[in-house]
Amino acid sequence: MILLAWHVWMMIGIGFVIIEIFDPAFFFISLGIGAILTGLFSMLPLVGNSIPLQILIFAIISFIAFLFMRKLGKKMLTNTGGETNVYALKGKTGTVTKEIPREGKGFVKVGGEEWSAVEEDQQAIELGAKVLVQGIDGNKLIVVKKVT
Questions:
Q1: CA 120 to CA 131: how far, in whole Å?
Q2: What's domain 85-145's architecture?
Q3: Of 118, 124, 113, the residue nearest 138 (C-alpha)
Q4: What are phi and psi of 43, to 5 degrees?
Q5: How many C-beta atoms surround the C-beta of residue 92 within 10 A?
Q6: Which of 117, 122, 124, 123 is nearest to 132 (CA)?
Q7: Which parts of the chain have pLDDT scores under 70?
Q8: What is the pLDDT of residue 82?
């Protein structure tokens, strides 16, 4: 079997993609994309067997892919500064599912999950009322009745 230039570029590209799986740094995937696309271009009669042209195409495509992947990687890895886990509930609106008695604990549904809750000023809140999450204390939400 005779290996053509596009066969070699495809094998190199697949090799880089496999390396990227084990070293996810968004670098080798750029080279893999460059090699695979160079393989596709080398099938064209214009590029054909011109090794210098293939190397130039590989370099240009890999560089562009690297810039794109770098931008994508930064976007994915940048911390948005937002709250996470239960602290992300702060400021959300919920509905009382079990009345919150004066100086007592009831239940509210926020974002599809039911949480135990207390009223911030120890006031009673009736069943079905809309509440705003003000904070978190352990596993309880601190809420206030939402004024509509």
A1: 11
A2: Beta Barrel (2.40)
A3: 118
A4: -75, -20
A5: 14
A6: 117
A7: 79-84, 148
A8: 65
